[in-house]
Amino acid sequence: MSTPTPARTPVLEAVDVARTFGSTRALDGVSVRVEPGRSIGIVGESGSGKSTLLRQLLALDSPTAGEVRFRGQRLDRRDRGLLRRLRADVQPVFQDPRSSLDPRMRIGAVVAEPLRSLKVPGDHRARVVEVLASVGLDPEVASRYPAQFSGGQRQRIAIARALAPSPSVLVADEPVSALDVSVRGQVVDLLHGLAATQGLTLVLVSHDIAIVGRLCERTVVLHHGRVVEEGPTASVLADPQDAYTRRLLAAVPQLPVG
Amino acid sequence: MTALLSVDDLRVETSTGRTLLDGVSWSLDAGGRLGIVGESGSGKSLTALAVLGLLPEGMRATGRVLLDGTDLLTLPPRALGRVRGAQVAMVFQEPLTALDPLMTVGRQITGPLRLHRGLRGSAARDEAARLARLVHLTDTERILRSYPWQLSGGQRQRVALAMALACEPRVLLADEPTTALDVTVQAEVLDLLDDLVDRTGVALAFVSHDLPVVARVARDLVVMRDGRVVERTTVADALAGGEAAYTRDLVAAARAVTGLPTPTRTAPEDAR
């Protein structure tokens, strides 16, 4: 285990972030540091605030108190220049590839879409072939439509699209929860491999502490809008300090060793 | 032991002749615990619907579904309606689909008591309160006066279970009953199901894509894929290495993905 290097500016950082909706405190003083080139998992059940935090990190919503920083700069939804850099550098992958891929667009156009909207210069077609290869798909899939693919393949396509503008951060929201068990492992392995070989920073938001355990070096546990536990994943799993984390771990259905 | 419920060479076809279930057979003994596991498209939920005579319009079932020797597939709709709920009850993934949003929970639980057991007035109310306690609902008075939307997901599933058990059915068919729940709530509902089977002697058929969840409550196991039964076995045998390659793949995938990477656990051993 490496000790944290103090001088590194986090790629993304939530500093004492609160978000209230009326009288509901969805986030209540949440601080999270996303270190460059590292993987961090944010675990929580429904109502924990994990989706609200995700929206903050993607600048899809603004905090009611505290701030979110991108490479050290405070995110302000009116700062167009900073938002553009964030959109190019931080790419989301969502839970259900069925609804996040436009059914009327061919795969080639789906994957090239962020290149177009972010006005990335260069040969888009070549980049599409490149990222499809990096997720283990043949270049000929570019001419087909999303409906022709299985759930696992669609999630690979969604990951290829996220990779197209060469982001340094992937923010994945329950990326395998909608998939069959037999393909979950493959998508987890793919994300793991991409993070390792391309030096990607990975932020994984999930209700599933086991998936976070597979993928992330650090784990943050959210409960009722607060961080109840944070640390290296291995120690969070092996020696949870918070009572809620212990309850969460004990609740994971496990196959007895056969 | 003779089977309480047995499915024998069940086939389901669409009106265009496409085969969705192909020769599905299994049986459930009185007080038994059967898990039916499969991935999406395996036909596991369709099997449950066919057993209950609830197939979508345009689908046709052939074969036999024997409840105590009576073939449910040949029963006229009214007779089947008396079996459904009274002898074979069901719970689904989303309890809101089973609950009427405009009716208090108390009235929904007393509904089947009136219909199938002829209970009225305070007798029905007392029985509803007993059922609410049976499914470990706390603050029963308040919950019986509530509407479904005022309850949490776990409470709703407990209410759905109370309704399912209202007529003391002999078989409880549960289709992904904990899939929509948070993992800590899922653990509580699985404990509850376990306990209900022990206490009431109801036979449980538990359908899920999630093998570790199935393994938690079932003893016997049916593995399905593409509308067929791949293997009929027990949970213990499947975990020790099933006969069919697909069963072994499912077990391996479940271990790889849902197994926690670190075996050390500070939680007490009984957290199983």
Oligomerization: heterodimer
Mean pLDDT of chain B: 89
CATH superfamily of chain A: P-loop containing nucleotide triphosphate hydrolases
Number of strands of chain A: 10
Q: What top-tier CATH class of one domain in chain B fits best? A: Alpha Beta
Pfam families (chain A): ABC_tran
GO molecular function (chain A): ATP binding; ATP hydrolysis activity
Keywords (chain A): ATP-binding, Nucleotide-binding, Transport
Family (chain A): Belongs to the ABC transporter superfamily.
Short description:
Chain B: It is found in: Cell membrane. The complex is a heterodimer of chains A (258) and B (272). Chain A has 258 residues and is of the alpha/beta class.
Describe the protein.
The complex is a heterodimer of chains A (258) and B (272). Chain A is 38% helix and 24% strand. Chain A is an alpha/beta fold and 258 residues long. Chain A has a single domain (12-251), classed as P-loop containing nucleotide triphosphate hydrolases (Rossmann fold), CATH 3.40.50.300. In chain A, the strands form two sheets. A six-stranded mixed β-sheet of chain A has the order 6-7-8-3-9-10, with helices on both faces. Chain A has a four-stranded antiparallel β-sheet with strand order 2-1-4-5, covered by helices on one side. In chain A, a hairpin with a 2-residue loop joins strand 1 (12-21) and strand 2 (24-34). The longest helix of chain A is centred in the last third of the chain and has 18 residues, at 181-198. Chain A starts with 11 loop residues before the first strand and ends in a 7-residue tail after the last helix. Chain B has a domain at 3-98 and 171-260: P-loop containing nucleotide triphosphate hydrolases (Rossmann fold). Chain B has eleven helices and ten strands. In chain B, helix 4 crosses helix 5, helix 5 (121-134) crosses helix 7 (153-165) and helix 7 packs parallel to helix 8 (183-200). The A-B interface holds A 45-46, 151, 176, 180-182, 184-185, 188, 207-211, 213-214, 234, 237-240, 246-256, 258 and B 39-40, 153, 182-187, 190, 209-213, 215-216, 236, 238-241, 249-251, 253-262, 264-268, 271-272.
